[in-house]
Design brief:
With 353 residues, the chain is mainly α. It has 14 helices and 2 strands; from the N terminus they run ββαααααααααααααα. The chain has a two-stranded antiparallel sheet with strand order 1-2. Helix 1 crosses helix 4, helix 5 packs antiparallel against helix 11 and helix 11 packs antiparallel against helix 14.
Length: 353
């Protein structure tokens, strides 16, 4: 079967079912590579912006790092000048910036003023402690939030939904440091009739070895993990619940029920997979924050991680250490966001066309 066009000039004949010349295709073969290149370029620009921000922002902090390095001792102007020359603080600001960017791109984040050690070494030393704390909390609050969010959405309007949503909103609005202090008062110091059950801070008692050491670290881990889970799980719950509620009115779910599928199967096989995108975004963002740690929680519980190190560096100010930590925190979040963007097309083929 053919169609004939009687426009001026020779008649054009096109077979029915064929795509006319110039018509758009369903998916361009170069669509995903362009999408990938755009996301990677955006990540590179963001990293450079963080590099610039980390250099200039922390130079607004009041305090003279050279005075800190002298320990408050009376020193001569010549000694102060020697310190400034040693750490490059006597150079013009633009030259300090170019030196900082050049070294950062080669993996050198400078030398800490207070520890007299490479910043990279201090970050590497504290990173496992942060990953232990925030990684444990991340797994728990992500699983808890996704599970309760799914159940609340599927039974929305019920007593359980109202209770979990209200509790999640309440805990999410509580400052983490305030909740941590409250837990220390009640469960560490003890309030009659509740005795003190957990350490007030730190990561270990320092006297145990082997299995006893593992149990000691786990004992110190309880309160900071409970604090993080209580504050953070509500966000995952609310995002999962909202995304699933948007899917529940779709026609394909009605069709699945009409075929006789149980509600649990409809939820697991159809509704939840199609509501994953917002939750995946949140999971990757939280995963990036896992590397950054939680500064206030680590400070309250004296946990020797990146967050506590950042707070300690700010009090000096230890400019190389503050800049290096800020760059690592931001780079982790940017990297996880970029990975989330790359995973999207696998979950939804419409993304990246």
């Amino acid at each position: 079967m053919t169609t004939v066009s009687s426009a001026a000039g020779p008649a054009s004949v096109t077979a029915v079912g064929r795509r006319p010349a110039g018509a758009p295709r369903g998916r361009s073969r170069s669509g995903y590579p362009r999408y990938l290149a755009g996301k990677l370029a955006g990540a590179a620009v963001s990293l450079f912006a963080v590099l610039v921000t980390s250099f200039f922002l922390f130079r607004l902090i009041p305090g003279d790092p050279v005075r800190f390095m002298t320990g408050g001792r009376p020193v001569s102007a010549e000694q102060l000048a020697t310190y400034r020359e040693e750490f490059g603080l006597d150079l013009p600001l633009w030259q300090q910036f170019t030196d900082y960017c050049g070294k950062a791109l080669s993996g050198d984040l400078g030398t800490s003023y207070q520890f007299h050690a490479p910043v990279v070494d201090k970050i590497t030393e504290a990173l496992p402690n942060t990953l232990l704390l925030t990684g444990t909390a991340f797994v728990l609050y992500t699983a808890l939030g996704a599970f309760l969010g799914t159940r609340s959405a599927w039974r929305h309007g019920g007593l359980g939904d109202r209770f979990h949503t209200g509790l999640a909103l309440t805990l999410y609005s509580i400052p983490s440091f305030w909740l941590g202090l409250l837990l220390i008062i009640v469960l560490s110091v003890g309030v009659d009739p509740v005795p003190g059950l957990f350490p007030t801070g730190g990561m270990e008692s320092g006297r145990e070895e082997g299995l006893a050491h593992v149990l000691d670290v786990a004992h110190h881990l309880v309160l900071p993990v409970v604090t993080l889970v209580a504050v953070e799980y509500g966000q995952t719950l609310l995002v999962t619940r909202s995304a699933l509620l948007d899917e529940m009115g779709a026609d394909y779910l009605t069709t699945a029920r009409a075929k006789g599928l149980r509600d649990d199967l409809v939820r697991r096989r159809h509704a939840v997979p199609n509501a994953l995108l917002p939750t995946v975004t949140l999971v990757f963002v939280n995963l990036g924050r896992t590397v950054a740690g939680v500064v206030l929680v680590e400070t309250v519980f004296s946990w020797p991680g990146l967050g506590g190190l950042f707070y300690q560096a700010l009090s000096v100010p230890d400019l190389p250490l503050v800049q290096g930590l800020f760059f690592v925190f931001a780079a982790a979040v940017i990297l996880m966001n970029t990975l989330a963007d790359l995973v999207y097309p696998m979950l939804d083929p419409r993304v990246g066309r």
